[in-house]
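Project standup — Tuesday

K.O.: blocked on the structure for the chain from last sprint. Re-posting the sequence here as requested.
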Amino acid sequence: MLGGSPADIRADAARVRAHADQTVDAAGTALAAAGVDWVSTGADRWRDGLSEQRTEVDRTAEDVYAAAALIDHLADTLEARQAELQALLDAAGKTMSDVADALADGASDAFDVAQGFADDAAEAARALADGAGDLADGAVGAAKGLGRKIGGLL
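H.V.: unblocked you, prediction finished:
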């Protein structure tokens, strides 16, 4: 279908969400270490740092979940647009194959026009080169004639 498969895009969103889930789970496992019975100023600092890192992981996971939601929205939008296009094609009695053929014909027509422009440019360049050659021949002839006149004066 034109634009890709909404199901494939939704599968991508699911993979993104799974990655965020794994990240949150790994952070939870690391945070479990905060429950270790360790009493000291260093232990307090370590737990504070671990807590700050967990907050950062949670923020990152939220961003990843938001990206997955946007990917899902893209799939929904694509699916809706494909349905609208299909309804229009059905109403016109056309198929996606008809659309592809029309696009191919249009591309072929555009190529033909571009080739015509290129041919015209090449012809103009040949005419310019021929004119330059005639001009050069005339200049050489004039220089020879001038050289004979100067030679006759000496």
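K.O.: great, moving the ticket to review. The chain has a mean pLDDT of 80. DSSP finds three helices and no strands in the chain.
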